[in-house]
Amino acid sequence: MTAPASLAPHYGAVVVGGGQAGLSASHYLSTHGIDHVVFEKNTVVHKWKDERWDAFCLVTPNWQCQLPGHPYDGNDPHGFMVKDQIIAYVDGFVHKVAAPVVEHTAVIMIERAGDGFRVTTTAGTVTADAVILATSLYGAPFIPAAAARLPEDIVQIHTAGYRNPGQLPDGAVVVVGSGQSGAQIAEDLHLAGRKVHMVTGNAPRCARFYRGRDVVDWLWDVGQYEITVADDGMGKKRHDTNHYLTGRDGGRDIDLRAFALQGMALYGRLSGVAGGKMLFEQNLRANLDNADRVYNGINALIDRHIAANGIDAPAGEPYRPVWEPENEPAELDLEAAGVSSIVWATGFSADWSFVGLPIFDGTGYPVHRHGVTDIPGVYVLGLPWLWTWGSGRFLSVGRDAEFVVSHLAASRIEATTPALKRAG
Question: How far is CA 234 from CA 21, 130, 374, 389, in A?
């Protein structure tokens, strides 16, 4: 990383966000010889160092770590890097790219300025021919408003602040949200012997291994990671919840039903808080059934691939529930249950407040096609389903960056060609 000694008044491009998406953009901007700066409000490895719990590990196998010019080169391609290894991998990319990053510098506003853009930051104002918004959808941690009605003596923490079971006071723990983070943190607490109350949602789940291989390997062969938003309709996939499973201890399924047999309490979606009680929708059974339906559907897709290609593989069979809820709990009395803390696994809110440009739809989501917006010179990068199922991950964020920067570079050439012809 090569932070500029001082800001230039003008750049060919400004990149907002110094995560893997912004650094990938910097890599390709340098390849094209485009002068640029990357503004990062924290540090380039902030998300990995400061917003991941101690037992965090990758859910996808190491071979999918394919940042540009920096593929995984370890001796365990089918393993799952743990937190320190991930940080080391990203650090290696940071040093290799040597991006001109200005850390601890927030972008306050981006607006039009003549044929380009004015970018106001906490370190000063610059202008640019183009801007790449690489801030992802993971802005501020989202906690439902109902949290304000919980008893004051209960410790509340978001997944971004969770580190390990020992940081929470003794007593039972409620985990709200059954996406990847929620399911893995619930497992972390459960394995530590804590009483866990898991509030489920509509997150799907996936097998870790099936018919002799990691499911991710099968899905790569099937071509699932190359499916584009154009194949399924633009925008339909952008807010999909990730499937829950884990790479912990070599990788395994996460089966909430099995946890229930071992003493974890399960509930439907949170509907409110009143009188020291958490209230729930009556959809626990539906949530579990839907997660299993996706699980079995993915395995059936693999079955069809194996049959169609005559692949010799061990037999497989559908998942059958190991536990069914006898009733649908409508409420949880927190004091009676001995609950001391709540982990909010409720995701993040995107922050586009600094973008003073008309690039958003009615929901506040940027309108784009493969990262290219309708405003010439404005790009987005690092979003889930930016173009393919692999977008936003170590697997494909580099390819998306290459596409975006190639478009930016071609646009610069088109803009200068008429002037060159007139000069000739």
Answer: 21, 24, 15, 12
Given a cut of 50, whether residue 47 has pLDDT beyond it is yes
Q: How far is it, in rounded angstroms, from Cα 87 to Cα 70?
A: 14
Q: Is the pLDDT of residue 369 over 70?
A: yes
The confidence score (pLDDT) of residue 420 equals 47
Q: State the pTM of this model.
A: 0.93
Is 348 within 8 Å of 138 (Cβ atoms)?
Answer: yes
Does position 422 have pLDDT exceeding 60, yes or no?
Answer: no
Task: Using pLDDT thresholds of 50, 70 and 90, give the confidence band for residue 58.
Answer: very high
13 in Cβ contact with 36 (< 8 Å): yes
State both tokens at 367.
């309108």
CB count within 10 Å of CB 362 equals: 6
Cα dist from 293 to 78, 218, 286, 290, whole Å? 26, 18, 10, 5
* Helix, strand, coil content of the chain in percent (nearest 5): 30, 25, 45
- SS3 for 230? helix
DSSP secondary-structure letter at 309?
A: T
CATH number for the domain whose boundaries are 142-344: 3.50.50.60
Q: Do residues 164 and 83 make contact, with C-beta atoms less than 8 angstroms apart?
A: no
Please state the domain extents for the chain. 10-139+350-423, 142-344
The pair phi, psi for residue 313, each rounded to 5°, is -145, 150
Note whether 10-139+350-423 and 142-344 share their fold: yes
Distance CA 141, CA 158 (A): 7
Q: What sign for the dihedral angle of Cα 305, 308, 311, 314?
A: positive
What would the mean pLDDT of 205-215 be, rounded to a whole number? 98
Q: Which residue has the higher pLDDT, 389 or 323?
A: 323
Q: What is the pLDDT of residues 80-99, one digit of tens each?
A: 999 999 999 999 999 999 99
Locus of tokens 């003073």: 356
Place domain 10-139+350-423 in its CATH homologous superfamily: FAD/NAD(P)-binding domain (3.50.50.60)
Read off the DSSP letter of residue 334.
T
Which two tokens mark 48? 């990995």
Cβ atoms of 5 and 37 within 8 Å: the answer is no
